[in-house]
């Protein structure tokens, strides 16, 4: 009933306020009639959600919860998108490392609505930096003072930069480059030695134009966090979230169709939306598109492209290669070890077993992701897994000389071509809108999440904004 007032005016029932009867006036039977008429009206108005990652799932939960008739179409054979999982020895693991932060309020609220709060657990999380042949923990001011790769004066400047980044306002930072901002705050030498390798690790040679607002958000993501540096995981892994969400959607009457790739999304000559899949053409009252932006740009038909008010169809995306190692021993106590120096073929060693219970990964099993952000045109996207494993493992052994091949239980390589936009200055103005065609085609995708960090939480926030725009 809560969303009754947001129904379309012409075809829906009268606004809630005008019809709400007090219980002593027979309100119960009045509400029943309204619900029935609402359901009849909505059944003829199906929304087709394209994409079954967290954006599609969160949109479907919100829309179906508001009484809309929803069909969700996913191209792969599993829900979950970048949070999808695979099986190993009777357990499931994410293809790409995933965890939650205490500041992920909207995501945590969604999980709570699915009854999953008791399953989430939190563990302290630490960061380290591999430089000058050593591993330096970097979690406290004292750690920074001991950070030998930087001259002492630069350590102070880097520390003050972090402090200022948390105190200053974000005003004007979308139009300023991170390079200029951090160079101004930390000095050229500290920028080149400390910040630049981390920026390059994420965006390669396209780091030059990344807006300072992108970096500022990272400084501030955990600000004011009473739990300190902790990260969260869920018992049973992200599979648990995905399966619980799918179960709730089915309870709400949502039709979920897997393995149906959208080949085209367009408007017909009357301006009504339709999609084309291997099953043929399918009409819908509304489309809600959650595909990654470059994929969406590829399948958008000519009428939709012309009708949609989009500032920039050409937003490019960064991809990622994750080489996952199941090890019989731990590497470090740190969740994240940054390896930005060029001698390493990967940018980070992400030891997710620092955050997870043995019941979720297996007794004595340690889980390490070697991660490298790359554009999808990079040859490493097409390289056989073995050609990734050999040099990457050899580089890992340079960091951990006592690590042996016999410590590896299994290795898997996963690649994602579309992870997040290659941000450029002024990105706020390039961000695609929630409404592509009023009343007909809507968008909830990663390209809109900025300046919030690309994450499940960011996608849940965006899903809320888009569904609100739909229900207006
Ligand atoms: C290495 C890595 C680590 C990460 N770590 C974290 C983390 O720790 N915490 C966190 O919160 N987030 C993390 N993220 C980010 C998070 O995974 C994403 O922000 C989020 O999953 C994006 O969700 P989405 O639904 O918008 O997009 P996606 O997950 O990309 O989902 C899009 C869906 O659309 C489907 N699709 C695409 N094309 C078509 C088509 N033509 N037809 C039909 N379906 C189609 C895809 O199969 C997919 O299921 C990480 C991401 C990566 C890559």
Provide an overview of this structure.
35% of the residues lie in helices and 22% in strands. The chain is of the alpha/beta class and 472 residues long. It has 3 domains: 143 residues, FAD/NAD(P)-binding domain (3-Layer(bba) Sandwich); 141 residues, Alpha-Beta Complex (Polyamine Oxidase, Chain A, domain 2), CATH 3.90.660.20; 81 residues, Orthogonal Bundle (protoporphyrinogen ix oxidase, domain 3), CATH 1.10.3110. Strand 6 and strand 7 form a beta hairpin. Helix 4 crosses helix 16. The protein is globular. The N terminus is likely disordered. The structure holds flavin-adenine dinucleotide (FAD).
Secondary structure: elements and pairs:
Layout: H1 16-19, H2 27-43, E1 46-50, H3 54-65, E2 69-73, E3 85-88, E4 91-94, H4 105-113, E5 120-124, E6 127-131, E7 134-137, H5 141-145, H6 152-167, H7 178-186, H8 188-203, H9 212-220, E8 230-234, H10 238-251, E9 255-257, E10 264-267, E11 273-277, E12 280-283, E13 286-289, H11 293-299, H12 302-307, E14 317-327, E15 336-338, E16 348-351, H13 358-361, E17 366-374, H14 385-399, E18 408-421, H15 427-430, E19 435-437, E20 441-443, H16 456-471
Parallel strand pairs: 1-2, 1-13, 2-9, 6-15, 13-20
Antiparallel strand pairs: 3-4, 5-8, 6-7, 10-11, 11-12, 14-17, 14-18, 15-16, 16-17, 19-20
Bound molecules: flavin-adenine dinucleotide (FAD).
Flavin-adenine dinucleotide is lined by residues 50-56, 73-76, 81-83, 96-99, 261-262, 290-292, 295, 299, 320, 322, 371, 416, 419, 445-446, 454-457, 459.
């Amino acid at each position: 009933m809560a969303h009754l007032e947001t129904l379309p005016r012409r075809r829906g029932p009268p606004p809630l306020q005008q019809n709400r009867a007090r219980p002593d006036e027979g309100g119960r039977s009045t509400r029943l009639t309204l619900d029935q008429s609402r359901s009849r009206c909505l059944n003829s108005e199906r929304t087709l959600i394209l994409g079954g990652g967290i954006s599609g799932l969160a949109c479907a939960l919100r829309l179906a919860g508001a009484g809309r008739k929803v069909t969700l179409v996913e191209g792969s054979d599993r829900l979950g998108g970048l949070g999808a999982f695979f099986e190993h020895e009777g357990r499931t693991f994410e293809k790409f490392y995933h965890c939650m932060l205490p500041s992920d309020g909207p995501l945590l609220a969604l999980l709570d609505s699915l009854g999953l709060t008791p399953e989430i657990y939190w563990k302290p999380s630490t960061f380290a930096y591999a430089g000058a042949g050593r591993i330096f923990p970097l979690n406290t001011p004292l750690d920074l003072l001991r950070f030998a790769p930087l001259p002492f004066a630069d350590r102070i400047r880097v520390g003050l930069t972090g402090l200022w980044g948390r105190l200053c306002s974000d005003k004007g930072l979308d139009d300023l480059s991170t390079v200029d901002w951090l160079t101004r705050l930390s000095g050229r030498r500290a920028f080149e030695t400390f910040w630049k390798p981390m920026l390059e690790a994420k965006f390669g040679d396209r780091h030059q134009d990344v807006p300072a607002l992108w970096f500022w958000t990272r400084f501030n993501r955990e600000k004011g966090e009473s739990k300190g540096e902790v990260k969260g995981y869920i018992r049973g892994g992200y599979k648990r979230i995905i399966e619980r969400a799918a179960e709730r959607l089915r309870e709400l009457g949502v039709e979920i169709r897997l393995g149906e790739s959208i080949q085209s999304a367009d408007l017909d000559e009357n301006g009504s939306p339709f999609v084309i899949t291997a099953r043929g053409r399918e009409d819908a009252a509304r489309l809600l598109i959650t595909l990654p932006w470059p994929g969406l740009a590829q399948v958008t038909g000519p009428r939709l492209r012309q009708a949609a008010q989009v500032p920039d169809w050409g937003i490019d995306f960064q991809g990622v290669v994750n080489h996952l190692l199941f090890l019989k021993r731990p590497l470090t106590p740190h969740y994240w070890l940054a390896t930005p120096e060029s001698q390493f073929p990967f940018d980070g060693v992400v030891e997710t077993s620092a955050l997870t219970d043995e019941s979720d990964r297996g007794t004595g099993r340690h889980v390490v992701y070697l991660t490298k952000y790359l554009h999808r045109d990079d040859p490493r996207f097409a390289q056989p897994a073995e050609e990734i494993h050999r040099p990457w493992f050899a580089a890992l052994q340079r960091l951990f000389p006592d690590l042996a091949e016999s410590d590896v239980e299994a290795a898997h390589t996963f690649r994602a071509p579309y992870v997040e936009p290659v941000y450029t200055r002024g990105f706020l103005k390039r961000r695609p809108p929630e409404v592509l065609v009023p009343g007909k085609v809507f968008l909830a995708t990663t390209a809109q999440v900025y300046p919030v960090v690309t994450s499940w939480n960011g996608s849940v926030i965006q899903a809320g904004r888009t569904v609100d725009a739909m229900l207006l």
